[in-house]
Amino acid sequence: MKGSEAGVELVEGTASQWGMVTSGQARALGVTRLEMSRLAAAGHLVRLAHGVYRNAGAPSDEFEDLRAAWLSTEPARFASDRLRDGAAGVTVSGASAARLHGLGDIPADRHEFTTRQRRQTQRAEIHYRQRSLTENEVAIAQGLPVTTVERTVADLVEARTDLSLVADVLRDAVNKAALDTTVLADMLAPLAARNGIRSGDGNGLVERLLTSAGLDPDSLARRLAKSPTYATLAEVARKVENVG
Fold first, then answer.
1. DSSP state of 83
2. Most buried among 17, 58, 74, 200, by the most CB within 10 A?
3. How far apart are CA 44 and CA 208, in angstroms?
4. How far are the Cα atoms of 86, 99, 208 from residue 172, in angstroms, in the given order?
C-alpha cells in the first residue's frame, strides 16, 4: 500500500475515535508496521503512547493521554465496538475518573482502569483495579466509559485517598447536581468503620465528607449569612415587615 493510501485508510478508520489509531487497528485496516513508521517519520502521525498514534491533522485536548491509554488496553479493538461492552469492558476509574468528570483536583499521575478480570501490566503509567461493576456504576464522559460519580467517590475512599481531597470531589459533584447521596451512602457503608465511623454507617461517612467540604447545614448557613444576596433579601424583608 502506498503511503498516501495508508494515510487515507487511517483517517477513515479512526474518525470515530478522536483521530487516534493503534498499531493493531492499523494492521486490521491493512496498514503495515513499516508504513506506520514511514507515516510517523513524515509527520503524518504523532506517537502518543506505546503503540498508539494520532493523525497529525486531528485536534488534541486535555484528555488525549487518557484516551490513548484506554485504547492501548485493548489495542486490536476499535472504540466504537468497545463502548458497547458497558460494565464488562475496561472502565476509567479512581483519580482518572474524577479528572474525567471534572471533579476535585486529585493528582492523576497514572491512568486508572477497572476490569472484571485481574490484569497486570509492566507499564508504570497504567494501573488496573479488579471489580465487577454493574451497569448502574458505569457512565460515559468525554466519550470514554467511566465509573459514575458515586462509584468514583467510593473507590477513592477505598483507595485511602486523603479524605480532604475526596471532599473536594464531593463538593464539585454537589455543585453540579451530579451526586446521589443515597446511592453513595450504600457504597460507603462497608468503608465506614475503617474511617472512624460506626460500622456500616454509610450515611455517617457521607456526612463527614460533606462537613469537610463545607456542605453541612451549619457551614451553608454561615456562608449564606455572609453573602451579599442574603443581606439584600434580609433588607427587603425588613422593609416589607415595616410597611405591613
1. G
2. 17
3. 52
4. 26, 11, 16
